[in-house]
Amino acid sequence: MTILKLLDNVGSLGLYYVNQIGRMGIFLVLVCINIVKPPYYKISYVTKQIYLVGSLSIFVIVFTGIFTGMVLGLQGYNTLSKFGSMGFLGSAVALSLIRELGPVLTALMVTGRAGSAICAEIGIMRNSEQIDALECMAIDPHNYIMAPKFIAAIVSMPLLTAIFDVVGIFGGYLVGVVLLGANEGAFFHSMYADVDYSDISMGFIKALCFGLLVVWICSAKGYFVHMERKGGFGAEGVSRATTNAVVLSSVAVLVFDYFITAVLI
Amino acid sequence: MEPLIQLTDVRKSFGGQEVLKGVNLSVYEGKTTVIIGESGKGKSLILKHILGLVKPDSGKVQVFGQDLNKIGRKALKEIRSHFGVLFQNAALFDSMTVFDNVALPLRERTKFSEREIEKSVNEKLTLMDIEGSNEKYPAQLSGGMRKRVGLARALVLNPRIVFFDEPTTGLDVAKSNEIYRVFHRTQTKLGYTAVIVSHDVPKIFKLADYVALIHDGIVQESLTPEDFQTSDNPVIRDFVEKTMGLIYESEQVEG
């Protein structure tokens, strides 16, 4: 009996996740179709979402970016000085930020700040029948709610990543050159010599992919909050879905980072 | 007369529990059909089937002659464009003002100018007796006002069918009567077909053309209010006695 119950639980868990992957896939396809085909969402909806997802995230991106650059400058200087290669500090800081840390940390910050808000907002709309109301008014929620959020995330993420990279490099300069005394000319020359277009395009592609990944997972978790395995109703259901969305998005960003790097490197 | 909405042998289960066990129901144009029954027996679920928000496990849900299970998203959207819905909790968009809530269907589904939208919205808000609340948010409104804003939004595109999911739940007697008066006034003026889910018996009989009782997962019968109250069906008789009978043990005690 115990084995049968165990098998039953494993089976239902498996079915739940297969089901979830399926509906999230269909959700993504429907949103993508609604982004490219009429009726088009209004530009004002998109700019509002860019403000919420992008502009309001700038402070946290600048703050984390500068400290990430500073710690890279500190660690890089101490490690490179052992080999007498302090001249490479600029390229070490810039490459680390542009190729890896910029897109990944920006995605994690946006997940925590905007992704959680997106999931909670849509989850509350679902639980208070606002999404049902839209459907009954013949207004497609994929078009009206989701498409502007997706566009905003895809537009904002590369811009936020660029800000993170620039501010991070400045942080590395501040610690490496201003505080620890590395050569300023060597710092910038090594960066100029070693960072090429492929590094920047890799960071840009990663930022785009992570933007899509974060907004997809967070929106879908909110949209399907009523189908959560442990119950998705009420405030507790929304809070659980939001936690799951943030955890899943963060893990997905790190996993996809490896695969995108493996393809682009 | 051909029904506008027809449910045929609709069945629906949740987690092994069969809630609808073969529901048959017809709704006719221009008439008010009231679905009554005890709480948790599937009244709102029937409404969700008609709205296309829930799909039946088996059976047919036909609206304007089209089976909702066999049509695509586009056709469903077209059917829904003739619907107006007043949800149980009004389902207003809490981050929008009253005006924006009522204007939403016009902004998204028509090419009206802002001036025309303003005119239509104000007209509907006046019809509901809530003019002057345009800039308020749903959280700043009373339950009765929220319902009236919800009804204004449901009616703003002059739909053919309007659905009411327990329109007076949570309201006191005076507010309930107000909602019924608004319903009667708007239906007389706009001539829509109405489907009302309610447990406000016997008051709701005053508004109904047909009363359908859902019990034990099926619609027992759909009758006129007069026939319903004198029906020989033991389930209906039992329901009428329970809801309209004496509160005390005898007429003498009740006075």
Describe the structure concisely:
The complex is a heterodimer of chains A (265) and B (255). By secondary structure, chain A is mainly α.
Largest interface: A-B, 13 and 23 residues
The number of E-state strands of chain A comes to 0
Q: What distance separates the N and C termini of chain B?
A: 45 Å
Structural class assignment of chain B = alpha/beta
Instruction: Please estimate the helix content of chain B.
Output: 25-40%
Helix count of chain A equals 9
| Rg calculated over all Cα atoms of chain B | 19 Å
Give the CATH architecture of chain B.
3-Layer(aba) Sandwich
Provide mean pLDDT of chain B, rounded.
89
Q: How many domain regions of chain B?
A: 1
Plain-language structure description:
The complex is a heterodimer of chains A (265) and B (255). By secondary structure, chain A is mainly alpha-helical. Chain A has one domain (43-264). Chain A is built from 9 helices and no strands. Chain A has helices at 2-36, 43-53, 58-82, 89-127, 130-136, 141-179, 184-194, 197-223, 234-264. Chain A is elongated. Chain A starts with a helix and ends with a helix. The mean pLDDT of chain A is 94. Chain B is an alpha/beta fold and 255 residues long. Chain B has one domain (29-58, 82-248): Rossmann fold, CATH 3.40.50.300. Chain B has a 6-stranded mixed β-sheet with strand order 6-7-8-3-9-10. In chain B, β7 (161-165), α6 (173-190) and β8 (193-197) form a beta-alpha-beta unit. In chain B, α3 (98-109) runs parallel beside α5 and α4 (114-127) crosses α5 (143-155). Chains A and B meet through α5 of A and α2 and α3 of B.
List keywords for this structure.
heterodimer, A: 265 residues, mainly alpha, 9 helices, 0% strand, elongated, B: 255 residues, alpha/beta, Rossmann fold, 6-stranded mixed β-sheet, 4-stranded antiparallel β-sheet, 10 strands, globular
What order do the helices and strands come in, and which of them pair?
The complex is a heterodimer of chains A (265) and B (255).
Chain A: H1 2-36, H2 43-53, H3 58-82, H4 89-127, H5 130-136, H6 141-179, H7 184-194, H8 197-223, H9 234-264
Helix pairs in contact in A: 1-6, 2-6, 3-4, 3-6, 4-6, 4-7, 4-8, 4-9, 6-8, 8-9
Chain B: E1 5-14, E2 17-27, E3 32-36, H1 43-51, E4 58-63, E5 66-67, H2 73-80, E6 83-86, H3 98-109, H4 114-127, H5 143-155, E7 161-165, H6 173-190, E8 193-197, E9 210-215, E10 218-223, H7 225-229, H8 234-244, H9 251-254
